[in-house]
Structures are given as structure tokens and as C-alpha cells.
Design goal:
The complex is a heterodimer of chains A (94) and B (460). Chain A is an all-alpha fold. Chain A contains 4 helices and no strands. Chain B is α/β, with parallel strands linked by helices. Chain B folds into 3 domains: 73 residues; 186 residues, no CATH class; 169 residues, TPP-binding domain (Rossmann fold), CATH 3.40.50.1220. Helix content of chain B is 58%, strand content 7%. Classes of the chains: A mainly alpha (94), B alpha/beta (460). Chains A and B meet through helix 1, helix 2, helix 3 and helix 4 of A and helix 1, helix 2, helix 3, helix 4 and helix 8 of B.
Chain lengths: 94, 460
């Protein structure tokens, strides 16, 4: 097992959490709903894994799981970004 | 080619971070969301060129079906239905992460993964499955399919702890002997049940916390999937979302002066009791006012603060309230909105509804920015809010909401409370605000009542 590679991944994970905390605490309450749906769309990044599993064509079971994952993740990504944009369009200052 | 895709993944990660950074101001937020979606698009496109992908037929099917469903949902949903929408999307994200990890596991006949991979497969499946069913229950509660009340069942905590331990033990055994696929299927089944049991006890008004927490879970599940498929971009993006969800969760808990545990384990002690206002037995008197008198009262005022709550969302009264604000302003009355952190069913719910009604966002104030101004305010209009304006939270140590930060509306010269009836709010307690000398009750459905008031004001 490549322990070093794992530790580097944990580094990335921990540092990204700190970046997340720094960024999010600066978002004003007015934008909390779009923040939530926008970040939700980002969590659809798992679509990358879904694409690979659905496209590897190794066996029926994993392809089906991959296809289902891809549908879910695509709903998450497309729905999340569109609905966030729809909301943000409305935030106006007169 | 591998190098190119790594560089694109790095670029996508940077775009996500910039995107969230720009969400920090209403002026740049839309652009931020755009940047983040460009990052996502790049990540998807470069992945399609991955050497591991050999067949595209299912990919095309999946992308088209998902995009059709996702875009239909996003364009059809009403702004008042936004909490459900976000709940549902959380669930799909979590479910997708669990499915990817399962697909990775089942793609070989005799699994022999490295230990870090198999551990993260278990974590990804566990967190993803809990997020999936938990979000579906949250969706059901917000949509009114599942009861919004606090649901208590016998041995609630022991059962959940036990189920969680079962998944952990099964996980350990799977790591030791990876060929036992039935263990992984068992983990999925138990995790799906756990998601239902964890969210079921949470009451409707506590949904802001539940939704934020599930948002965080869906991020962490994506991050775990990143460990499984050895992709730093997933780890980064997932961690960002995980952090965002946790912060919002904590803000919501602070807004109610309650611990996360207290919320997750099921509501205020008296919440959901069917015996409202049992109280001390003495019949307290409230005063009410009709629309005509109220219009004259407003006409004589020079400033006012409107406090919206979940009742505004239920009645779809945001447009009527915008009309009210406009007519008051045309009469030279200063109008501002005070928004409690947990008003509504998700963080920022009221702000989105008022934005939909084209209320300028610089008129919306958070609790800490406006609370000192109530003593200098002529009229406060409370529309569909209850517990968050109950003065008992300040002084009544026996009240379940004691210590919760509230909007000090009772300090204003006159408080108008619009409600359909004298019923109690979510915490199941009577609100002493309604009986104060400077409080006038204005009964009626929020939309109808406010529209009537606007018409009266027009005639003055």
C-alpha cells in the first residue's frame, strides 16, 4: 500500500476544509440559500467517478451502478447550478 | 494525457474555490456560480477522455436523463419550495457517491484493493447511503408527505448507536476479508435505514439544521469517493462542501441557542405537544385591529420594520409584502426587514423569497445588525413569525426557548402581529408578545391580510 500517497491525500483534504471554513464564514446570511444550493452542485463532482464506472464496461453490475450514479450526479450538478443561478438572478439592489 | 487531465482537475478545483469566494457578495455571486459551473464542465469533459472509459453509450444515456430531470426540476420549482429542492439534490449527490463506491467494488470478481481504498469504499457507501435516505425524509417532511412533527420512537438513541456500530463492525470485517460482498450490501441496507431513523425525529422548524447537515454529509461522501478513485479534485471539492454545510449547521444551532445534539435528537421538549397554551390557566387578553385602523396607524408612522417568518412562505405573501413596502415608502415611511437566522425552513429562506418579490437586498437586515433599532421604531409588523419574537427567550428561565437570540420587536412603539389564529408556534409555547400593551393582533392569512392593508392604504 502506498502510505505516502494516502497521507498526501489527507493533507489535501484537511487543507481544503480550512479553505472552506475561511471562505464560507465570509458569506452573508442573505446568500445562505444560494450558497447551499451552489455548494450542493459542487458536491455533484462525484459525477467524475460515475463517468468512469459507467464507461469502463467491466461487468453488468458495476455498469448499472455506474449508470445510476451518473444519473443521480447529473441531476445534482445540472439542477444545482441552474437553480442557484435562478435565485442569484433575483438578488438586486435598487 | 494523464498529466493534462491532472492539470485540468487542478484548474477546476481553483474555479470551485473562486466560485465560492465570489458567492460572498450579492454583486459577484452570480458570476461565482458561473465560474464554479465552468470548473464542473471542464472536469466532466476531460474525464470523458480518460483512457479507462471504453464505452460511451451508457454515459450518453446517463447524462441526457440526468440533465433532463435536473433542469426540469430547477426551472419548475417555486421559490417557496427551495428547501425541498435542496434537500432532494443533497440526496442525489450522496446517493451518487455511494453508488460510485459500490460500482468500484463490484467491478472486479475477486476484490483485492489496497487497504486505504477499501476503507474509503466503506465510508463513502455508509455516508452516501445515510445522506440519500436522510435527504428523502427531509424532502418528505418539507413537502408535507412525511409528518413535520417531531417523531419519537422507543429506544431511539440505542437503536441508532447499535445500527451505526453494526455498520462499523461489518466494515472492519470487510476490510479484513474483502471477498465478502454480502457485508458491503449489508452496510448499504443498514445505512439506508439509519438515514431514515436519524432524520425522522427532527421537527419541521428544525429543518434548516437538518438540511445544512445533510449538505455537509453529501460533501464528505464526495470527498471519500475522491479517496476511492484517487482523485484530489473530488477530495478538495467535497471538503469545501463539507465545511460549508458544517458552518451553516452551527450558525443555525447558534440562532436557536441549542446544541447540535439537541436538534438532531428531536426538538424542544414540549415541541409537537398537542396541548397548546396549557399555561397557567389565567385567560390573558390580547387586542386586535382591523385593516382600516391599521392603515391609519401606518399612515401616521415615520418608520417601520417588517419581520417575516415561515408563515409568509406558506401563504406565498412575499409579493403582497413587497407591495406594502412600496406603498409605505411612497408615503415617506422608512421600511426595513429584520430576518432571524432560523426564520423559514432553510438558511436564508426569507431572503430568497423577498429577492423573488424584488425587494432590494440592502433593506434586509440580520438580527445583530437591526436589533438595537427596535426602540426607535414606530411600527413593527410581524408576518408569520412566532418563537423568534417571543420575549420569554430573554427573561423566562423556565421557557424551553430561554436563551435563544430573538428579535426584540417588543421594544418598538407598536407591534402588529399578523397570524391566522392565536395558535402556538413550533416550540409549542404561548407567546407573551401577543398580550403586551403595545401589541395589536391583525388576524388573517398573511397574503390576504397584507393585500387588504395595501388596499386600505391606497384609499387614504
Amino acid at each position: 500500500m502506498d502510505l505516502l500517497a494516502l497521507i498526501m491525500q489527507i493533507y489535501v483534504f484537511v487543507l481544503a476544509i480550512f479553505v472552506g471554513f475561511e471562505l464560507i464564514t465570509k458569506v452573508p446570511p442573505t446568500l445562505h440559500t444560494p450558497l447551499m444550493s451552489g455548494s450542493n452542485a459542487i458536491s455533484g463532482i462525484t459525477i467524475v467517478g460515475a463517468l468512469i464506472v459507467a464507461g469502463e464496461g467491466l461487468n453488468m453490475l458495476s455498469t448499472v451502478l455506474g449508470l445510476l450514479a451518473l444519473i443521480f450526479a447529473t441531476i445534482n450538478v445540472v439542477g444545482g447550478y441552474l437553480v442557484t443561478d435562478r435565485m442569484l438572478k433575483m438578488f438586486k439592489k435598487k | 494525457m494523464q498529466i493534462v487531465s491532472y492539470i485540468i482537475y487542478l484548474l477546476a478545483s481553483v474555479l470551485f474555490i473562486f466560485g465560492i469566494k465570489k458567492l460572498g457578495s450579492p454583486k459577484t455571486a452570480r458570476q461565482g456560480n458561473m465560474l464554479s459551473s465552468i470548473g464542473m464542465f471542464l472536469a466532466v469533459v476531460i474525464t470523458l477522455f480518460d483512457h479507462m472509459i471504453i464505452t460511451y453509450e451508457w454515459i450518453i444515456v446517463g447524462l441526457i436523463v440526468g440533465a433532463l430531470i435536473g433542469s426540469t426540476m430547477a426551472l419548475k420549482v417555486q421559490m417557496t419550495g427551495m428547501p425541498q429542492m435542496v434537500g432532494l439534490l443533497n440526496g442525489f449527490g450522496g446517493g451518487a457517491s455511494a453508488l460510485v463506491a459500490l460500482g468500484e467494488y463490484f467491478k472486479v470478481d475477486t476484490p483485492a484493493f489496497e487497504i486505504n481504498i477499501i476503507i474509503t469504499v466503506v465510508l463513502s457507501v455508509l455516508i452516501g447511503a445515510v445522506t440519500f435516505t436522510g435527504s428523502m425524509i427531509a424532502f418528505g417532511k418539507l413537502q408535507g408527505i412525511v409528518t413535520g412533527k417531531v417523531v419519537k420512537y422507543p429506544l431511539q438513541n440505542p437503536i441508532n448507536v447499535l445500527l451505526f456500530l453494526v455498520t462499523l463492525v461489518a466494515g472492519v470485517f470487510l476490510v479484513i476479508d474483502q471477498t465478502h460482498s454480502e457485508l458491503l450490501i449489508g452496510i448499504v441496507a443498514v445505512a439506508l435505514v439509519l438515514g431514515v431513523l436519524l432524520v425522522l425525529p427532527i421537527g419541521g422548524a428544525d429543518m434548516p439544521v437538518a438540511i445544512s447537515l445533510l449538505n455537509s454529509y453529501s460533501g464528505i461522501a464526495a470527498s471519500m469517493t475522491g479517496f476511492v478513485i484517487n482523485n484530489n479534485m473530488l477530495i478538495i471539492a467535497g471538503a469545501l462542501v463539507g465545511a460549508s454545510g458544517i458552518i451553516l449547521t452551527l450558525i443555525m444551532c447558534r440562532g436557536m441557542n441549542r446544541s447540535l445534539m439537541n436538534v438532531v435528537l428531536g426538538g424542544w421538549e414540549s415541541a409537537g405537544s398537542s396541548d397548546p397554551a396549557a399555561g397557567d390557566g389565567t385567560q390573558k387578553a390580547h387586542k386586535s385591529i382591523d385593516s382600516e385602523e391599521l392603515a391609519m396607524l401606518f399612515d401616521a408612522a415615520s418608520n417601520c420594520i417588517i419581520v417575516p417568518g415561515y408563515g409568509m412562505a406558506v401563504a406565498q405573501a412575499q409579493h403582497a409584502i413587497r407591495d406594502l413596502a412600496n406603498i409605505l415608502e411612497s408615503k415617506g415611511i422608512k421600511v426595513r426587514f429584520a430576518i432571524h437566522p432560523v426564520a423559514g425552513r432553510m438558511p436564508g429562506h426569507m431572503n430568497v423569497l423577498l429577492a423573488e418579490a424584488q425587494v432590494s437586498y440592502d433593506k434586509l437586515f440580520a438580527l445583530e445588525d437591526i436589533n438595537d433599532d427596535f426602540p426607535n421604531t414606530d411600527i413593527v409588523l410581524v408576518v408569520g413569525a412566532n418563537d423568534v419574537v417571543n420575549p420569554a427567550a430573554r427573561h423566562d428561565k423556565s421557557s424551553p426557548i430561554f436563551g435563544m437570540p430573538i428579535l426584540n420587536v417588543d421594544y418598538a412603539k407598536t407591534v402588529i402581529v399578523n397570524k391566522r389564529s392565536m395558535n402556538v408556534g413550533y416550540a409549542g409555547i404561548d407567546n407573551e408578545l401577543f398580550y403586551l400593551d403595545n401589541t395589536l393582533m391583525y388576524f388573517g392569512d398573511a397574503k390576504g391580510a397584507v393585500t387588504k392593508l395595501v388596499n386600505e392604504l391606497k384609499e387614504l
